[in-house]
Task: structure prediction
Amino acid sequence: MRLKTLLVTGLGTAAAATVGSLASKSALQSWYPKLTKPSYVPPDLAFPIVWTAIYADLAVTSAISIDELRDNDAAEAKKYVAALGANLALNAGWSWLFFGA
Result:
């Protein structure tokens, strides 16, 4: 894994996480706390911890995959990068759709 690739995937995932977080901020302070939730809903503190781990894992595994593909099949690397970009856009966009920001 190359540091440059990790920085790019890290910045991309951080941007997606930030955009999603901004979308959910007002809802988490207004209507979401008023919902009747089942007893098995994780505590609020779990969400930022888990999402940080998920996005960090995505950044690292994507950097490894991209570098491996670039070394062996540049066309596949481009497809992977496009799919990663689409995934991050959908992840960020979902928060805007769900929370109605």
Residues 3-99 form one domain. The chain has a mean pLDDT of 94. The CA atoms of residues 5 and 63 lie 5 Å apart. The chain has one domain: 3-99.
